[in-house]
Amino acid sequence: MTMRPLRLADMTWEEVRDLEETASLAILPIGAIEAHGPHLPLATDGLIAEAMAQAGAERLARRGYGCLLLPCLHYTAAPFAAEFPGTLSVGPGTVTAMVADLARGVARFGLDLALANVHLDPAHLAALDAAAATTEGRVIFPNITKRPWAPRLTEEFQSGACHAGQYESSVILAQCPELVRNEIRRSLAPNPASLSQAIREGKHTFDEAGGPRAYFGNPAQASTEEGRRVIDILGGILEDAVVATHAEPDRT
Predict the structure, then answer these.
(1) Where do the H-state alpha helices sit in the chain?
(2) Considering the domain boundaries, does residue 250 fall inside one?
């Protein structure tokens, strides 16, 4: 039975109450408000996470999962970008507590919590790992920086030079093209500096990592077509992570 994903923020409390027999999973998109080059909006990670959540929910609905889409959590740990105007970074402990509390909240409705996350700051990822570890298996977190998920994404993503580059710019072009400053994007030279390598070397900011304008990769090569492919891949990752955790939906 295919079940249409529902948006919690659009529902009344009585409609949520009546979900008990149909819903099995809440999906939380998580982003950040942080610098994404001179051409992408501060909310880029949240916009990509929302696309991942929607694509994953639609896939899971075809498998019989009743999915409830939660509003995006836009504020998180973003120390790598903290030096740039507009970035709003909160402490990792705050993030862990918030996600754990949300997991406990949706558990009251009999739902597990799946995280649709594309923000890759190490402090943020550690906070989500901590939340998943403290909620008794009620949080499903596919960390796209690790196997088996990372190899499914683009070559630029796997290189580590992927913040506000071709990979992320493509998704925003596909999802909300009106927010891309295309004249600037097309003028940007490639920046092959790898964030993942910089992290391994102990760097702590975008500037230290070789990204003085808060972008890595090749945003000028972004395309709507690639963006659509990436959204589909991200949706598939979320779907497979949920299915791997729960072989069958709790409710159909």
Answers:
(1) 13-17, 44-62, 92-107, 122-133, 155-159, 166-175, 182-187, 195-200, 224-245
(2) no
